[in-house]
Amino acid sequence: MCFNQTTSLTLATAGAIATVITFLDKSESLKVRSVRSFAILWFTLMELLQYLAYPIVNQCGYGANLFLSKLVSYHILLQTLAFMPAAASYSSDKDAINKAFKLGIAISIFNFANYFYDLGEHIHPQKDFFGRLIECIYMGQYHIAYSIPVSNSFIVMWLCGFGLAQLGFLWKNNWRISTFHVVMQFISLFIPQILLGVSTGEAGAIYCFFSIPICIGYMPIFKRHFKEKVV
Questions:
Q1: DSSP letter string over 82-100?
Q2: I want to staple 65 with a disulfide (CB 3.0 to 4.6 A). Which of 6, 59, 99, 171 is the partner?
Q3: Does residue 230 lie within any of the structural domains?
Q4: Could you list the residue range(s) of the whole structural domain that residue 96 is in?
Q5: Inside any domain, residue 229
Q6: pTM
Q7: What distance in Å separates the CA atoms of residue 72 and residue 5, rounded to the nearest whole number?
């Protein structure tokens, strides 16, 4: 694997282009193309954060590292609002997007409650001057890695990544896109830990790296593969 600042910027640029193309798909309603393009944009922003983070990795506890680490935390905890409505956009249920958005709000509230009460454990513990655990972006074996208060909590990791894809099966005639996400997220989130032995924090960052290719499935050119025939 060759992860570096240049590849992050390249992927962020590709994500920005994919966002615009998806939003301009006039064959879909404004709601559908908005949620699909927003999902791509959301993970494009994460890749941009990773690009900005490379020069200041391991500078834990202060300055740009602490600021970007906070942004990463909030971005991860809120990604349900970007991912879930888009994942429901292929459903034949006309109200699926609204239902997914409401469920996404509920999951985000749970995630933030976990975050602020620090129920999880740090993978790469860092403390400030007062001995409080803080976020940090540090260098893993192959890729930058995240250390946030909830990053070692299995429940929150599930609700922020792999589990979101499984929830796509809740919506009617939505199994193709859901299966695609389950397979791709398993590969990007768990395979690095299984084959490369990376930490949960690094695996989470690698998953964010691959989220843009995963979300490319929302682009107009690919949607014929995921839209199911309604009998």
A1: HHHHHHTTT-S-TTHHHHH
A2: 59
A3: no
A4: 5-223
A5: no
A6: 0.86
A7: 16
Residue 20 burial by Cβ neighbours in a 10 Å radius (0-12, 13-18, 19+): exposed
**Residue 47 in domain:** yes
Report which of 187, 212, 192 is spatially closest to residue 202, judged by C-alpha positions.
192
Residue 231 lies in a domain: no
How far is 130 from 52, CA to CA, in rounded Å?
27
**Counted domains in the chain:** 1
